[in-house]
Amino acid sequence: MKKVIINAIICILIFLTGLIIRNWWDIGTIELETKINVLDALSLVATIVVGIYIAKILEKEVQDKRIEKDLYISKINSVEYILNTIESLIESSKDTEIQYGRIVNMMHRCRIKKSDVFNTLEKKKMDKLTTKIHEYNQKLKTDFQLLKKSLTETTVGGTRNPAVKLKNNIVSYSEERSLEILTQINSIESTLFELKIIINNL
Predict the structure, then answer these.
(1) Taken in order 89, 102, 137, 126, is the CA torsion positive or negative?
(2) What is the pLDDT of residue 97?
(3) Dihedral of the CA atoms 118, 124, 127, 128 (nearest 10)?
(4) Within a 13 Å sphere around the CA of 1, how many CA atoms are in the beta-carbon half?
(5) Burial 16-29 (b: 16+ CB within 10 A, else e)
(6) Where are the domains of the chain?
(7) How many other β-carbons are positioned within 10 Å of the β-carbon of residue 179?
(8) 85, 189 in Cβ contact below 8 A?
(9) Whole-number Å distance between alpha carbons of 134 and 24
(10) I want to staple 118 with a disulfide (CB 3.0 to 4.6 A). Which of 84, 137, 153, 194 is the partner?
(11) 109 to each of 71, 135, 140, how far by Cα in Å?
């Protein structure tokens, strides 16, 4: 939107410049007047200077907002990267050993990165969007808690076929639990995608 405003300012400047130059130049006879109105000249210069200054201010503001958005999205991308890593580990769990400590660490990093994004977003004054951002935060908080539970909660007791087995820091999951984990990750990624769209439209 602000790029449109900048372009509009430039067009107005060109138009005003053309009007003033037209007063100096007789198009019909193609004769340049020898007398130039000083006030018109000063007005032209002032208009150009102010217009350029405003255009630069708006352009800088647009760039600053783009950088800010990219920082948010970059942080969300890093959360998605961790989730994709967990997803790959679960999908290849039959052929690859999964270290329990690594899973716990990745979930911890996900929550920290997510919290960084929302802590900053919720401090910004965005009127109606504040409520929406808060709703996304609560939804993701619940989803991450469920995912952590699915990944790390081992079965207590002598269950013959536990959903999660842990031995010597190596964790393995039943097919049903693996499917549950993958479904939860897909749900979180969909929510993160929606959040990126909202951030892009700020």
Answers:
(1) negative
(2) 86
(3) -10
(4) 4
(5) eeeebeeeeeeeee
(6) 2-200
(7) 12
(8) no
(9) 60
(10) 137
(11) 17, 21, 14
Structure tokens at 69: 């958005």
Backbone torsions φ then ψ of 25, nearest 5 degrees: -120, 120
Total length of the chain: 202
Tell me the two tokens of residue 202.
Answer: 């700020």
- What CA–CA distance (Å, rounded) separates 82 from 74? 13
pLDDT of residue 47: 75
- Quick one: which of 149, 161, 172 has its CA closest to 97? 172
pLDDT along the chain (202 residues), means of 10: 56 58 49 56 71 73 79 91 94 86 93 89 73 89 94 69 87 92 95 91 80
What long-range pairs does 183-188 form, CB within 8 A, spacing at least 24?
184/143, 184/146, 184/147, 184/150, 185/83, 185/86, 185/87, 185/147, 187/143, 188/83, 188/140, 188/143, 188/144, 188/147
Residue 158 has what pLDDT? 55
Q: Tokens representing 170?
A: 């190596």
What DSSP designation does 9 have? H
